[in-house]
Amino acid sequence: MKQTLFLLALAFLLLSGCTAGGDGQLSVADAWGRTSPASAANGAFYMNVVNDSGSDDALLSVATPACGMAELHEMYDQGEGVMGMRPVAGQRIPVPAGETVELKPGGLHVMCMNKTAAFETGETYPLTLTFEKAGAIEVTAEIREQ
Amino acid sequence: MSLKFRFIILGALLLWLSAACSAFQPHEFGGVVFPEPQTVSDFALTAANDQTVHLSDFEGDYVFVYFGYTFCPDLCPDTLAKLALVRRELGDDAERMQVLMVSVDPERDTPERLAEYVSFFDDSFVGVTGTPEEIDAAGKPFGLYYEAHEGSSDSSYLVDHTARAFLLDPNGRLIVAYPYDASDEAILADMEYLLAQEG
């Protein structure tokens, strides 16, 4: 009897392991923007995109009242300590199934052009993220120093 | 001697040894250290209110020279915010640390705009710029590279640039180059180490 129970429990654990990652959704965690003065025309937003949906997806665009215009950008290392920044090819950040894509300083970010206000620490701004499959996702980005 | 007492002695000895060990370990810097401090030729650039700022004005202090531009959304504010944090953490020694941001985008960054920008991070920070020739001359000892390029239709132009923060000692010699991802903890530990070395 004990053995049967054990086997049942084991089977249950294994099965629950199977389903995790397939039935979930695509979600966005820890969206934030860096504090910056009014004299800085541009700013940046960062976040983690967690794809538990079971199928590949991609971030296509971001809209927010905080920016005159928002684009998906990436930093790239040119060697010798030189860093460059460029719009992401095709304005499309792939988010493969089961993976988390980090938008973070020195890497991918939402380039916020012509900021509509100074970004003061503690403020929040709504971001509307559009994904290829998941569609529009609304998140709130907190302004903080780092 | 009881066994317990012996253990206490042994424990104390081990503790002392490990403390002594770490005290003799050389300090590891958070950036690339120049084995021989590099002499940097003086330069003159312009700050707000038409004020001429020489690099040599800051001799006696530890100076962080950073090349960037105010339209830069990612690394420049990240680095300046880190340096501001380090300066705040230094407490009474904060006066010994100076940050000098040189804009490589004189077309858009007027000295006034720069002053407003850098003071947002810390009141003591100084922002300077000049003609492209003056910027090139100032950047030469640091191996400065920068180049403007088109972003996309609406994003106006972007500037690729050397993203290191350079630390000069109180004699104006280049001692450490910090990569953009050096942590504020590491930079702070370096500053505390350097100040402690002064005795």
Give a description of the structure:
The complex is a heterodimer of chains A (146) and B (199). Chain A is mainly β and 146 residues long. Chain A has one helix at residues 2-19, and strands at residues 26-34, 43-51, 57-63, 67-77, 82-87, 93-95, 100-103, 108-115, 124-131, 135-144. Chain A has one helix and ten strands, in the order H-E-E-E-E-E-E-E-E-E-E. In chain A, strands 1, 2, 3, 4, 5, 6, 7, 8, 9 and 10 form a ten-stranded mixed sheet that branches. In chain A, a hairpin with an 8-residue loop joins strand 1 (26-34) and strand 2 (43-51). The longest helix of chain A has 18 residues, at 2-19. Chain A is globular, with a radius of gyration of 20 Å. The N and C termini of chain A lie far apart (56 Å). Chain B is α+β, with helices and mostly antiparallel strands and 199 residues long. In chain B, 35% of the residues lie in helices and 27% in strands. In chain B, the strands form three sheets. Chain B has a six-stranded mixed sheet. Chain B has a two-stranded antiparallel ribbon with strand order 2-3. A two-stranded antiparallel sheet of chain B has the order 7-8. In chain B, helix 2 (75-89) crosses helix 5. Chain B is elongated and about 80 Å long. Chain A binds chain B through residues 34-44, 69, 71, 73, 75, 78, 80-87, 105-106, 109, 111-113, 145-146, and chain B through 70-75, 77-78, 81-82, 85, 113, 116-117, 120, 143, 145, 149, 151-152, 154-156, 158, 160-164, 177, 179-181.
Q: Which regions of chain B are unreliable across 5 or more consecutive residues at pLDDT < 50?
A: none
Gyration radius from CA atoms of chain B, angstroms: 21 Å
Succession of helices and strands of chain A: HEEEEEEEEEE
Q: Output the number of helix runs of chain B.
A: 5
Quaternary structure classification: heterodimer
Given the C-alpha coordinates, what overall shape of chain A results? globular
Largest sheet data of chain A: 10 strands, mixed
Task: Say how many strands of chain B there are.
Answer: 10
User: What structural class do helix, strand and pairing data of chain B support?
Assistant: alpha+beta
User: How many distinct helices of chain A?
Assistant: 1
Distance between the termini of chain B: 43 Å
Q: What order do the strands of the largest sheet of chain B run in, or round the barrel if closed?
A: 1-10-9-4-5-6
Summarize the amount of helix of chain B as a percent range: 25-40%
Largest sheet of chain B: 6 strands, mixed
Silhouette of chain B: elongated
Work out the strand percent of chain A.
over 45%
* Secondary structure: number of strands of chain A: 10
